[in-house]
Design goal:
heterodimer, A: mainly alpha, Non-ribosomal Peptide Synthetase Peptidyl Carrier Protein, Chain A, 4 helices, about 60% helix, globular, B: alpha+beta, OB fold (Dihydrolipoamide Acetyltransferase, E2P), Chloramphenicol Acetyltransferase, 2 domains, 9 helices, 20 strands, about 35% helix, elongated
Chain lengths: ~80, ~375
């Protein structure tokens, strides 16, 4: 899957948790959860959404590597 | 004849707007069935009926805002026929016609297009006074859809009213306790390592269960203070403070928390958060929390001192889990810990008992496998 396509999937999933999020306001190399104000329940729902959409498993120990949008796209790109 | 009235869905609600009927005349209604959807200032709530019967008449039209306690519909009891009910109502108009309405109130209502029959009278023998109509006029919906800003303001007003009442009426006391979280975190990490992302647990669930088990042991923290009398509750229904993304706060209940497994609680919590966001809460969840738990730690604060949500008498709050310097057996070490705090009602309990309660919460969190 191309990065652009992956990004579209990530944004669609993110909007299902945080409908107000504006893609253009997100800084790709800054912590995502701070920018979008995702608590642990929102974060878990976001990961469940990605799991269901992209059919990938994201083990909990990997959470720490998923700080920014760039991190997330790199990680997902390798998994798919 | 059963009168189905608009219930109060919390101390911050004094009116509601009927959005939708889920029943029609002739339908049979079971206990717990959702019969209507009502918009409070915070959320659209599915209203359940706690009585059984057959719908006779829907008295209020969708789109109408009415005070709490207004009769929304009438239901026939088992064995009651529509004819006998009609006869009673045929006699009743006499009573309705005799309803006392002050001339000033009638004129005020007429000038503003307010249906005088929907106004609740507070005067002698239920007479409708000018003040009642003025109050009803204020409660009446503004023509057109309320804007998002109006809804925000209404929610802020509702929260302000409930919290002002709390601070005015409840003599709060506050206690806090540092709770080591190393055991709970280690247990959670191990438990989640074996679970798919859809089955993982959150620390919030362990905290909820610990509080629920402690509440069971300390009935003076779990119940309702009504009209000068405290009634402890045998059931533990915990109100979970959930912030709304558009601003504001709502604290609906998860029922019977002490009796549920962590997996069931996780399911219930996810479901509750999802329905809060989607605006489909049930009236029983709004009206019966016996105590509240809030967790602002994720927003980065170390400790939270909450305001009790009346008529409850206690609120437990958790702050952020951080690594802290800690002394263990005389040696300095690093310990992951959170600050748990209790806001409780001095009319019902004292600091001594509150301290024992918080210690119980702390101890429960040290033995996560038993939760």
């Amino acid at each position: 899957m191309k990065r652009q396509q992956l990004m579209a999937n990530v944004m669609a999933t993110l909007r299902s948790v945080a409908p107000e999020v504006n893609e253009n306001e997100l800084v790709a190399d800054q912590p995502l959860r701070d920018q979008v104000d995702l608590d642990s329940m929102d974060w878990l729902n976001f990961l469940i959404g990605l799991h269901e959409k992209l059919k990938i498993e994201i083990p909990e120990p990997d959470y720490a590597r998923l700080r920014t949008l760039d991190d997330l796209l790199d990680y997902l790109g390798k998994k798919i | 004849m059963i009168e189905f009235k608009l219930p109060s869905l919390g101390s911050d609600m004094d009116e509601g707007k009927l959005l939708q009927w889920r029943i029609k005349p002739g339908d049979s209604v079971k206990r717990g069935q959702v019969v209507a959807v009502v918009d409070t200032s915070k959320a659209a709530v599915d209203i359940e009926s706690w009585q059984e019967g057959t719908v006779f008449e829907l008295l209020i039209q969708p789109g109408t805002t009415v005070p709490v306690g207004t009769v929304l519909a009438t239901l026939l009891e088992a064995g009651e026929s529509a004819e006998s009910a009609s006869q009673r109502i045929a006699q009743a108009p006499a009573a309705a016609a005799r309803r006392r309405v002050s001339p000033a109130a009638r004129k005020y209502a007429g000038d503003r297009g307010i249906d005088i029959n929907t106004v609740i009278g507070t005067g002698a023998e239920g007479a409708v006074t000018l003040q009642d109509v003025e109050h009803a006029a204020k409660a009446a919906p503004v023509p057109g859809q309320p804007s998002a800003a109006d809804k925000q303001q209404a929610m802020r007003n509702a929260i302000a009213a409930a919290m002002s009442r709390s601070k005015r009426e409840i003599p709060h006391y506050y206690l806090s306790e540092t709770v080591p979280m190393r055991n709970a975190q280690a247990w959670l990490t191990t438990a989640n390592a074996q679970r798919s992302v859809t089955e993982r647990l959150l620390m919030a669930v362990l905290q909820l269960k610990s509080v629920a088990l402690a509440l069971k042991k300390f009935p003076d923290m779990n119940g309702f203070f009504h009209a000068g009398i405290y009634q402890p509750s045998a059931a533990v229904h915990i109100g979970v403070a959930i912030s709304l993304r558009q601003g504001g706060l709502i604290a609906p209940a998860i029922h019977d928390v002490a009796d549920k497994s962590l997996e069931q609680l996780m399911h219930d919590l996810s479901d509750l958060v999802r329905r809060v966001r989607a605006g489909s809460l049930r009236s029983s969840e709004m009206s019966d929390p016996t105590a509240t738990v809030t967790n602002l730690g994720e927003q980065g604060v170390e400790a939270v001192y909450g305001v009790i949500y009346p008529p409850q008498v206690a609120l437990v709050a958790f702050g952020r889990i951080t690594d802290r310097p800690w002394v263990n057996d005389g040696a300095l070490c690093v310990m992951s810990a959170t600050t748990a705090s209790l806001a409780a009602d001095h009319r019902v309990s004292d600091g001594h008992h509150g301290a024992l309660f918080l210690a119980e919460v702390r101890e429960r969190l040290q033995r996560p496998a038993e939760l």
